[in-house]
Design goal:
The protein has 210 residues and is an all-alpha fold. 60% of the residues lie in helices and 0% in strands. Helix 2 (26-35) packs antiparallel against helix 8, helix 5 (66-73) crosses helix 6 (79-97) and helix 9 (136-144) crosses helix 11 (169-182). The protein binds iron/sulfur cluster.
Length: 210
Amino acid sequence: MQVKEIVQHFNTLFPNPKCELNYKSNYELLVAVILSAQCTDKRVNIVTNELFKNWNTPYKMVTLSQDELEEKIHSCGFYHNKAKNILAMSQDLIDKYNGIVPNNIEKLQTLAGVGRKTANVVFSEAFGGDAIAVDTHVLRVSNRLNLANTDNPLICEKQLMKIFDKKDWSRLHLQFVLFGRYICKAQNPKCQDCPFREFCNYYANISKRQ
Ligand code: SF4
């Protein structure tokens, strides 16, 4: 399949892709992305809807103790590490950047608890930068469609960056996430609704078994 065709199919499936996390500032986005690891955006939105009423800046966040924050984000899962990371990231923002979320990937990654994926999401979503954040959906979809052949997110990101035009990276990230979330799901993907069947490794394998 040609790269152009892939882009066209994704544009047809998701013509106006949007991040499904709710946020009103770059700081809120950063916190929401940290909370979204191994958790649905829907659940994160429920939690942040309450959390951000009173704790929506790094200065306010660091007034919470680890235990207090854990209690507020408990339902997002991995609450101990997430609370630790959010508090450390918030303190780093205050100490290094006057409480302002930096606008480049390298500086974002200097914040405690902020890895490559989170930095890429914030860079593209908050600042309109070109980046392909590789989460579990992007990794799965890329491998199934033969666009990548690795379980390493960083290698996958580099493979996708070589294949696609830079101007398409951020939109494709959102489209891959939506495609992985609603169609090419980890279990029971909706292959009958998928325009990529004839190019898909996974579909070829399950068709052989049937
Ligand atoms: S054919 Fe099925 S497994 Fe393959 S990309 Fe489409 S939905 Fe995913």
